[in-house]
Amino acid sequence: MGSKEVLRHAALCLPLLLISLGCQCLASSEFQATQTATLKVDASSQLARKIPDTLFGMFFEEINHAGAGGIWAELVSNRGFEAGGPHTPSNIDPWSIIGDDSSIFVATDRTSCFSRNIVALRMEVLCDNCPAGGVGIYNPGFWGMNIEDGKTYNLIMYVKSAEAAELTVSLASSDGLQKLTSVTVPVAGTSNWTKVEQKLIAKGTNRTSRLQITTNKKGVVWFDQVSLMPSDTFKGHGFRKELISMLLDLKPSFLRFPGGCFVEGEWLRNAFRWRESIGPWEERPGHFGDVWHYWTDDGLGYYEFLQLSEDLGAAPIWVFNNGISHNDEVNTAAIAPFVKDVLDSLEFARGSANSTWGSVRAAMGHPEPFPVKYVAIGNEDCGKKFYVGNYLKFYNAIRVAYPDIQMISNCDGSSRPLDHPADLYDFHVYTDSKTLFNMKGTFDRTSRSGPKAFVSEYAVWRSDAGRGSLLASLAEAAFLTGLEKNSDIVQMASYAPLFVNDNDQTWNPDAIVFNSWQQYGTPSYWMQKFFRESSGAMIHPITISSSYSSSLAASAITWQDSGNSFLRVKIVNFGSDSVSLTISSTGLQASINALGSNATVLTSSNVMDENTFSNPKKVVPVVSPLRNAAEQMQVTLAPHSFSAFDLALAQSALVAEM
Ligand code: AHR
């Protein structure tokens, strides 16, 4: 470039540079704009109200492989070879063979010893001089098995061979080349099925392993119900520990299960059936969930959901099919057997160990009843032709048999009274962030008579949510502050969906993302942590004064934790300005201690920021001491942030009625 050209270039660029600098200044001065606001809390006991103990809980749906290949720790996928359907030969996916056509022939047939899941796998070894490593079958689990060095895995399988055989069971890398452990399993020659139990101890770690069963000996061996479970599961109950610990961390007060649409099915023949999901795991037929398009062996069945509720310290909420799917319905005139089926399910949960169904539960290891106090009669079926008719049949029968059970209708009672009796009505909302933020006032206007609301599914979705954005979590937090304030009429709320296996994201976004060995919470997961002390706490009226108040949402509670008491002020700053906020509290029965007070903030530099496996803590709450905590105090709210200010109370200041 010559000197003239340089000058000409500079002359052209300078204005652009100035414009761009100007823009930057404008942008940064916009960023730095500080709004002011005052938030007053009236913590006097006369105006305090107890939040229901049940307010914040969880909704678990078998969606996104949340259960099979998720919290249920079974490593083998399609363990009974039933996923390909009852007609043989059938697809054995994801099982596959080791060897080629000349050395091995595998096919399903209907010779299982289990009558409810009759399909088994026949493996014929054709080679006289088989390859050194043998031929056989392998199962890659759910996108690879997480096998960890030093850990024990319990293998159970059923085998049959007319002649004595010798099998090698191993855990290996996905290409079979790296062996993590290997054991020899002799099979006696008999015409009967034999149960094989073997412990496998891994001598290495591989996150995408497979289970292999091979042999070098010509002959025929049948296999069925091949299970591989890590020995180390939550309370020994079969749940993946690290995923359960994320649930425990939110202290859920209830667990709604097992769906959602999963309960309904696209067609009734594919809906979840509790009866098929109980008893010995080997005898469960499994089923294809046609809404979310995958097979489940139903190792995570009705009993396990009840057990999970107990393990989480959460009240079970059983959502049962009411004779309605997405595409077909049972006429109310013919609903009686479905009603009987549900009564049996309640006897299974609540009946004595001597009752018909209670004895089945007891035989499974739980003689004490499970305290089912809530049931939902269907999911999102209001408006369907036979909904109200079927609902009333279920409602009346359950009311007589279990008068204390609270029943949840699918019909939204927030805008108009229901035309049928109910204890609660279900309310679902998936929307954009602005709409949900503004919905914080939805229940301000609902009638105080009639059934209470169960907001059993809420989330920001679509473009505002990304794959779990800060923006979504802020709007959801605002919405929840509204539910807290209206918790005289809103009795329960849960985010949806809870889990996603990253390999099968049918529904986006979700609260917890995992694969075979990693997991992280989206901002929507972390947002819920701010509300975990709310159930059973006292809520206090607040007022916000600010010209910016349309971007703010807040609530105030007092809560106790092992002898310590706190006033917690939560506030969402949904706007892009920072806010200088004065918090003043009156009516407290004790003074505020700076020591032990702290602030927790969920924010990030970009409102669309998300967590990922590589950066799982990009958007997580950050806790810091609140040294200026006092009856009147000044704090700064970052743009696009959610903050909780926990003010330690000098003595048990919680109103006595708690
Ligand atoms: O949460 C995902 C789905 O959303 C649920 O299955 C259904 O109830 C709702 O439509």
Automatic annotation (TrEMBL):
GO terms for biological process: L-arabinose metabolic process; polysaccharide catabolic process. Residues 1-27 form the signal peptide. It holds the Pfam family ASD1_dom. It catalyses: Hydrolysis of terminal non-reducing alpha-L-arabinofuranoside residues in alpha-L-arabinosides. It is an enzyme of class 3 (hydrolase). Keywords: Extracellular matrix, Glycoprotein, Hydrolase, Secreted, Signal. Its EC number is 3.2.1.55. This is non-reducing end alpha-L-arabinofuranosidase. It comes from Brachypodium distachyon (Purple false brome).
